[in-house]
Known about the structure:
By secondary structure, the chain is α/β, with parallel strands linked by helices. It is 42% helix and 12% strand. The chain folds into two domains: 6-159, 3-Layer(aba) Sandwich (Alpha/beta knot); 178-239, Helicase, Ruva Protein, domain 3 (Orthogonal Bundle).
Amino acid sequence: MSHPPRIVLVATSHxxxxxxxxxxxxxxxLGELHLVAPACFPDPQAxxxxxxxxxxxxxxxxxADLPAALAGCHWVAGLxxxxxYISGPTLSARTGAEAVVQRPAAERAALVFxxxxxxxxxxxxxxxxxxxxxxxxxxxxxxxxxxAVQVMAYEWRMAAGGFDDxxxxxxxxxxxxxxxxxxxxxxxxxxxxxIGFLDRGNPRYLMRRLRRLFNRAQxxxxxxxxxxxxxxxxxxxxxxxxxxxxxRDV
Length: 250
């Protein structure tokens, strides 16, 4: 797998955006932050906005110019939303992240983000192999700096395979057997007929639809047992009425 990309911020004017960028990076497992001529860093506002990602700020490298910040990198992508009249490849955020992941393990990649108000200059984009554009609302495509970093960090993480401790999908849970489900459906049909909900002489598609409904749930054995218990309780309630154990007057 390729190295995680280096995040490079050029001439950031507000220190809070540097801290928010560090936070965005850490949530997706990125740790290498390089700053080019920041207006104010280090700064308490950066630490406040980092919200626990102070280690990234502590290890951030500050450079006088962009070439210095890109030293050691083999593939560089510049983030830009403005149209340019210079030929060159432009990738979406997703394809750009995939291109980072596909780099050889020996190569280092960098994602370069420009100034909050004006972005990257043409001269700075000339130092990049490709331009990346984050698709956004054409009527309002303005993204906060740290939001743009968060989008790219997320796309990189997903392209890299996500996290090992992702939210469980239930794929490893044991499902109820076909025989167990068959018994449940027979029990269900029996009870529905007893309460008058199902006419066995003219069932139409009721049981077929109910089977489709429960099959979509991919039930586990305990869940089937709960439903069977409910059905048995319904049957028991119909036979144990006031006046006698079987519902008849005595």
